């Protein structure tokens, strides 16, 4: 919700600027997600504000200086610098049609990091430490279906199909619909939540009438439960999605099926869970254990001493 509000603020603030209006239209034509549009506009605004000039009169040298500033002065992560670079690439290649755009705006290499995975026992203990029924049910749903938190909070009553035992994810990341399994145990939890709260449209309504609960509210509830549960591993709502994928893989589910359940565009993205599925990866027999029997180690004989 915060990024949506920022998007509308940016859109209203810069509607009178022809360049920004054209960039907004170019993103709209390509059906960019609202979050992406908001992020790109904010990035270009920061770039222009830094130099005090319109991006139309700035070129490769200013772009390079800006990236150095983000790296050395603002100390941003490669992911954040990459977001700024993507916005600049779009502006100069698509909206301004500059031939140098792609070659002169490098994308930083992102370090490869494996997610920290909660065990089944840790997931169960964490969920037990959530004191609010709504928050507990949301995070249960995120784990049971491998949902992104943005997908969990935007579930509607009509997305629950108890006949086919599936949850419909309406316009998830990348503006793609998909179905995930509806756990019988989760269905009972959702029915209990409905009997208590009687939601009418959004499965998890927020404090603002007609709106779902915010991501911030769920993240704060997650942090509170993390402090209470005493688990030393980092825990965010997305940790439950990582645990979902890893636990499925460890139980023998095909990685292609997991890709479809998670809504990943690339199988390569899903395959990273192969590196953290310890019950399958680390349970593999070491070739050392297959060597023929080794005799007990005996120290070599000492040479005779003559003095």
Strand content: under 5%
What spatial order of strands do you see in the largest sheet? 1-2-3
Summarize the amount of helix as a percent range: 40-55%
Question: What is the subunit organization of this protein?
Answer: single chain
**Outline, from the CA principal axes?**
flat
Number of strands: 3
Whole-number average pLDDT? Answer: 86
Which structural class is indicated by helix and strand composition?
A: mainly alpha
How many strands, which pairing sense, and closed or not: the largest β-sheet?
3 strands, antiparallel
Number of helices: 15
Work out the radius of gyration: 26 Å
Order of helices and strands: HHHHHHHHHEEEHHHHHH
State the low-pLDDT regions, or none.
1-15
Q: What is the terminal separation in angstroms?
A: 87 Å
Offer a few descriptive terms:
3 strands; single chain; flat; mainly alpha; three-stranded antiparallel beta sheet
Notes on the structure:
The chain has helices spanning 2-13, 18-29, 34-51, 60-73, 78-95, 101-104, 120-128, 133-145, 149-153, 184-197, 215-229, 237-250, 255-262, 267-271, 278-281, and strands at residues 160-161, 166-172, 176-181. The chain has 307 residues and is mainly alpha-helical. The protein has a three-stranded antiparallel beta sheet. β2 and β3 form a beta hairpin. The longest helix is centred in the first third of the chain and has 18 residues, at 34-51. The model is unreliable at 1-15 (pLDDT under 50).
């Amino acid at each position: 919700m915060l990024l949506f509000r920022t998007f509308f603020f940016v859109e209203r603030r810069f509607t009178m600027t022809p360049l920004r209006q054209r960039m907004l239209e170019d993103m709209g034509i390509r059906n960019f997600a609202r979050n992406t549009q908001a992020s790109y506009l904010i990035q270009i605004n920061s770039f222009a504000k830094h130099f005090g000039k319109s991006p139309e009169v700035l070129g490769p040298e200013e772009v390079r200086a800006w990236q150095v500033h983000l790296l050395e002065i603002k100390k941003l992560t490669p992911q954040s610098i990459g977001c700024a670079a993507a916005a600049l690439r779009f502006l100069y290649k698509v909206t301004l049609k500059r031939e140098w755009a792609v070659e002169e705006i490098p994308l930083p290499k992102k370090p490869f990091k494996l997610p920290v995975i909660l065990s089944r026992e840790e997931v169960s203990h964490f969920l037990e430490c959530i004191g609010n029924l709504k928050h507990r049910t949301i995070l249960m749903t995120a784990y049971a279906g491998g949902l992104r938190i943005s997908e969990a909070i935007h579930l509607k009553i009509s997305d629950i199909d108890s006949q086919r035992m599936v949850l419909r994810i309406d316009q998830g990341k990348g503006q793609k619909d998909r179905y995930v399994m509806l756990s019988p145990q989760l269905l009972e939890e959702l029915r209990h939540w409905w009997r208590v709260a009687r939601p009418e449209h959004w499965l998890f309504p927020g404090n603002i009438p007609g709106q779902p609960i915010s991501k911030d509210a769920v993240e704060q509830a997650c942090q509170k439960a993390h402090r209470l549960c005493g688990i030393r591993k980092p825990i965010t709502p997305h940790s439950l999605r990582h645990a979902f994928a890893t636990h499925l893989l460890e139980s023998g589910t095909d990685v292609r099926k997991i890709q479809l359940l998670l809504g990943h565009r690339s199988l390569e993205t899903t395959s990273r869970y192969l590196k953290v599925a310890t019950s399958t990866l680390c349970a593999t027999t070491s070739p050392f254990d297959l060597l023929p029997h080794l005799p007990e180690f005996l120290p070599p004989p000492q040479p005779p001493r003559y003095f």
